[in-house]
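Handout, page 2. Input:
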Amino acid sequence: MKKTWIKVKRGILEAKHRRKLGITVFLYLYILDNVNWDTGIIYEWTDEAAAEELEIPLSTLRDHRRKLEDELYIQTTQKSRCLEISVRNWTNPREYSGQIYNEGDEITEPSEVEGDTVGYTVGSETSSPVHKVSHNHIDTLNKDIYYEPCDEEGNPIKEKKKKEPKQPTHPAIVAFRRTTGRYPPKTNYDWIISILGEEPDELKLHKCKEAWDRRGYNGNSLNWVEWYRDGIPNVPFKKPIKSDENYWQTPEGMAEAAKNNEIADEKLKSWNT
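Output:
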């Protein structure tokens, strides 16, 4: 009957195996599911048949198999029309002696054989119902192995670079920022563009903002933009501006001028004494 579960020792949960196996753990479990219990060997392996059953690209499966071989989990031998895969340091689940088969810790070159010339039926009635393998004796290579993240089919997942937000480039929005030192809310872009147009007069816009501020109105309001279209209303200023040539004719200006004259006279007296 088709096997319904796979048994492995808890050692596979160790961090060193997680780093080594990575996404290849699924192919490793698949191999354990099909290995001969008595010998720890799959005698007629083809990558094509395994890729078809696991529903992953053939090139991905071959890459994962070579990684398992490179990390000493399996050993691959080329036969005339197929591959023979041996699970390294295998222990037969039916034996209580703990005898280890397919021993070997030396690093061998991964097989470049594609192994897809012969079809291979897995999970047949002759397959053993349970598999387990010892992992604790597999040597750690004293280095961290990094596998790039993959999707369910084993294809590498390309990380999407975060795009920096683009700054507004419309002349009306740029003119607004130059005048106020900040961008308007995005919800007001279309409204501001409809008033200022494609070629805004920044000097005129600056005068509208200055007139708004001189009247003491809310600096966060955008209503002053309408003055660009409708004209600056004839409303008295709440605060006189010193740069205005008429400022020194106002009561505030004359009072400040008198005070400045008094200060100047006192300084002149101190210098003459």
